[in-house]
Amino acid sequence: MTEPTHRVGEASWDSWGDPAHAAPLTPSQRELIGQVLGIAPDAGLPRTPEAELRLPPGSLPPDARAALAAAVGDENVDTGAAARVRHAGGKSTPDLLRRRGGDVSDAPDAVVLPAGHDEVAAVLTACARYGVAVVPFGGGTSVVGGVEPLRGGFAAAVALDLRRLSRLVAVDAVSRTATLQAGLRTPEAEELLAAHGFTLGHRPQSYEYATVGGYAATRSSGQSSAGYGRFDDMVVSLRAATPRGTLEPGRGPSSAAGPDLRRLLLGSEGTVGVITEVTLRVHPRPQERHDEAWTFPDFATGTAALRALAQDGVRPTLVRLSDEQETSVNAVLAGEEAAPGCLAVVTHEGGAERVAAVRELCSDTLRRAGGTGLGPERVAHWRSGRYLAPYLRDSLLDAGVLAETLETATTWSELHRLRDAVTDALAGALTTPEGAAPLVLCHASHVYPEGASLYFTVAAAAGADPGGRWRAAKRAAGDAIAACGATISHHHAVGTDHRPWMEDEVGPLGVEVLRAVKDTLDPAGVLNPGKLIPERS
Amino acid sequence: MTEPTHRVGEASWDSWGDPAHAAPLTPSQRELIGQVLGIAPDAGLPRTPEAELRLPPGSLPPDARAALAAAVGDENVDTGAAARVRHAGGKSTPDLLRRRGGDVSDAPDAVVLPAGHDEVAAVLTACARYGVAVVPFGGGTSVVGGVEPLRGGFAAAVALDLRRLSRLVAVDAVSRTATLQAGLRTPEAEELLAAHGFTLGHRPQSYEYATVGGYAATRSSGQSSAGYGRFDDMVVSLRAATPRGTLEPGRGPSSAAGPDLRRLLLGSEGTVGVITEVTLRVHPRPQERHDEAWTFPDFATGTAALRALAQDGVRPTLVRLSDEQETSVNAVLAGEEAAPGCLAVVTHEGGAERVAAVRELCSDTLRRAGGTGLGPERVAHWRSGRYLAPYLRDSLLDAGVLAETLETATTWSELHRLRDAVTDALAGALTTPEGAAPLVLCHASHVYPEGASLYFTVAAAAGADPGGRWRAAKRAAGDAIAACGATISHHHAVGTDHRPWMEDEVGPLGVEVLRAVKDTLDPAGVLNPGKLIPERS
User: Which family does the entry's similarity section mention (chains A, B) (predicted)?
Assistant: First the structure.
């Protein structure tokens, strides 16, 4: 009844995930997309073979290398080309475009693989001492530049790959908590928890690769957040190594003993410390799961229905509502006839009795709000492809289609203004000189009593300068989000790509507070430079 | 169906609340308590009449006074004795003992009453410039020394009374949020929200006096936290004045744009800024309320039942379970026959349909866990007295009884070990030389999937040095809590009284982080000195 706990293969260096899952377009799909977006049949963004990459020589000073080897063992300081290339960045479209073009100039000088908290601490001490930038690396799935090995003025940068921190440290079955090391990927974590009868319930699109430490560092939110909560709300306590020592905030299920310092580490994206261990709320593996599709006449009616669910406290495990455009494109991709209106996916998980009770309350609410239940069949296509959309992006790039996503969140009362503003910004920036408009799809998900997140998917002709075109679109969308007073990211984090809007987000004094925390914990400034916190001007 | 929105009278200077609500003991109650605790009939802690107080002259420098008058208007800088005495501290038992003894040496040099955010900011600027400690003051109900006007090495201290910040600024009925000024007391806030059909649902014992700004600054949690959540989880965004400028964190219903800076202000107890406005999640005034008492054979069975509710997500609006001692003492106070076992109070509020559905699930769970429903009647006494217990404390002091409460929280698996340790510590410290043991009562409340809070009420012979006796008991209980790895406060905050355990709570590096934030926002160090953050050693 829960997610597959299968382990996927090592991620490809130049595309999303396991090459075995690649999903090339059929010739007819390619033709249709080309017609819609105005792309010539022979367009396409070529890939550079790995053997032809121009990798600059590593610049790790010998004394730093020796100190790192002393910290983790010589065999765990990898300066080989394969490892460096695979830690050259994350999985944003700009990352993929750079790698297709053969540009791995940003690759770290070494990949360091510590085995536990103390070794992470020793690496940080060594990096602070020798002036080496250190970039924490979990699943490498950042789509905002969060793992780009920027040197930040230092002579060298190392990727701190946490894959060896892969233990389930403890399970408290009575309190339903589990302590996991940070480098555990979700399928591995689920496999370990399943042996105790538990699940985490965290299912972002990056599920196959992303790690529990990465989720904590970026304030991730998964597709089942309506039922299981966003990741930051699952964290009971955590442990982080910093160049100044260890932080272990979180006592009791909740506290009034000063500000919640867990929340300073959650979302800190490796800029003030490296999360090595998290104690999380876990759940019994659900006995039952029930999927149901619903249709609404339009997006406004559908979002009002989601709002009714969130505000009445009748929470399904998962709820998401596609707008008209996304509904019809998904129907085409599923080989179904495009129907008018907006499709919602609703899932309930849990004990049989509770699923039945909540499902009934939920269905009543949705019907009263103007929805029509369509049964479980229409959910099957979504479910089978729920982690596969990023693979499709690579196939689209192969066909000359620039495809990317971005997301935000706001209050219910501002939701439609925000959607219109972002849609207009993306359409304005990505319409080709010949007048071909991009496809802009949107869904609402991650519902809260006060509002929801909006997730945009855009597809457009790549053109001669796809990187430049995406930068312009991202800038326009980000400015539109900031002008609406919405958040620049609901669950993708900040990294490099959202940093220009951080001062809008938290104000200049908020930025100063973040800098003060960083200066205290990382006085040398070696931790993930160039991310999250805006540069001093 | 919701709480009374009545406004109570101005709080007494030397006891808990509105003198009209004082609840003197009957002669037979006094005799019974004296017998149980070994107190002579003529014992009792006398009160010093206000006219006999030895109030030291104010020491506010004339230039500081002029600057404050420029900030808020001369008529809003009150240096009169009545105002100073009423801002001399909070409502802990040590506070009450000091005032009974006529000691108001800690009174502030003036009470400053700003009218809005900009005036608060101007007061902070003036205090930073002239070196005057500034102690934010809401309802004055702190039981941990949070509003004690410590000078922290400065020549003078002012109480910053926020009562004039009493507006409902905005209501967003669609998103169900309301923006309230910080100085609003709960009954006034509920009255303003009721006009829009909303309620806050926050009902701590300090309900009559405490303010929304105070709740935010102390991470309050109310009796209905199972249904409405703790106060920090209700805060969508907030606004704070600091000596360095304004902070306004909180965009969208949630965000991944860096650490959640709202959480740095929540629980900061006026040490880094003054919260002037909060935007809160609100709820429709419930159509229905249903109270039900339940009995369990013992505390372990009862807490397992509460755990089942919290972990299954079947959340009543309110749930609390008294241990055997508290159950029998409450029965005596209600004039009922003492029954064996442990009594729980369960309340459901909301729409009729939802109340019925959740109530059924809840009752099933409690029955399966070994509980027996007793109907609504046994809840009536608890409900009518829910805000009155602190008044009883004053009557007990009149009778020579030292009575106080303290609270903590931990995981379900540690709950009983913690209860035993704290009970033993309190009993050990408060047994009289003649061998009379104190009464130590406990209840579990504020349930979470991972654990719960434990709330202790203790009554003992005051003896010749009640202040010293309480300090010893508090020290023993705090050490027991820290040794168990529990939090030093679940909802009373830190103030002066819990500061000795803050380094246990967040670690030395956590303390450094708090200091760094304070140094950034309050470089002069004038904001509520001596609270929350341990002194540099």
Answer: Belongs to the FAD-binding oxidoreductase/transferase type 4 family.
Dig out the tokens for A220 from the structure.
């991730």
Q: Which residues in chain B are closer than 8 Å to A249, comparing Cβ atoms?
A: 506-507, 510
The reply, when asked if residue A513 is annotated as ligand binding, is: no
Task: Examine the domain organization and report whether A272 and A301 are in the same domain.
Answer: no
Q: Is B393 annotated among the ligand-binding residues?
A: yes
State whether B183 and B230 are in the same domain.
Answer: yes
- Do A221 and A137 fall into the same domain? no
**Residues 6+ positions from B385 with CB-CB distance below 8 Å:** none
- Each residue's pLDDT tens digit, A228-238: 999 999 999 99
Instruction: Write down how long chain B is.
Output: 537
Closest-CA residue of B relative to A304 is B174
Q: Is B39 annotated as a binding residue?
A: no
A413, A486, A493 member nearest B251 (Cβ) = A486
User: Which residues from chain B sit within 8 angstroms of residue A507, using beta carbons?
Assistant: 246-249
Mutate to test the interface with A, among B142, B219, B255, B353 (most CBs of A within 10 A): B255
Same domain, B204 and B136: no
Out of B258, B284, B310, a domain closes at: B284
Residues B277 and B301 placed together within one structural domain of the fold: no
Domain count of chain A? Answer: 3
Q: Does the CA dihedral A342-A347-A353-A354 come out positive or negative?
A: negative
Could you read off the pLDDT of B120-169 as tens digits, one per residue? 999 999 999 999 999 999 999 999 999 999 999 999 999 999 999 999 99
Q: Is B26 annotated as a binding residue?
A: no
Check B489 against A257: CB less than 8 A apart.
yes
**Does A222 share its domain with A239?**
yes
| Global pTM exceeds 0.90 | yes
Asked, for residue A135, whether it belongs to a domain, the answer is yes
Exposed / middle / buried, residue B335 (Cβ in 10 Å: 0-12, 13-18, 19+):
exposed
Residue B186 and residue B107 share a domain? no
Q: From B161, B179, B198, give the residue that closes a domain.
A: B161
- Which of A506, A512, A515, A518 to mutate against chain B (most B CBs within 10 Å)? A506
| C-alpha distance from residue A312 to each of A7, A409, B313 (Å) | 38, 20, 14
* Residue partners of A228: CB distance under 8 A and separation at least 6: A200, A201, A202, A222, A234, A283, A317
| Extended beta strands in B138-287, E state | 156-161, 168-172, 177-181, 198-199, 235-242, 245-247, 274-281, 283-284
Using pLDDT thresholds of 50, 70 and 90, give the confidence band for residue A1: very low
Q: Is the ipTM of this complex over 0.95?
A: yes
Which chain B residues are closer than 8 Å to A506 by Cβ?
Answer: 249, 257-258, 261
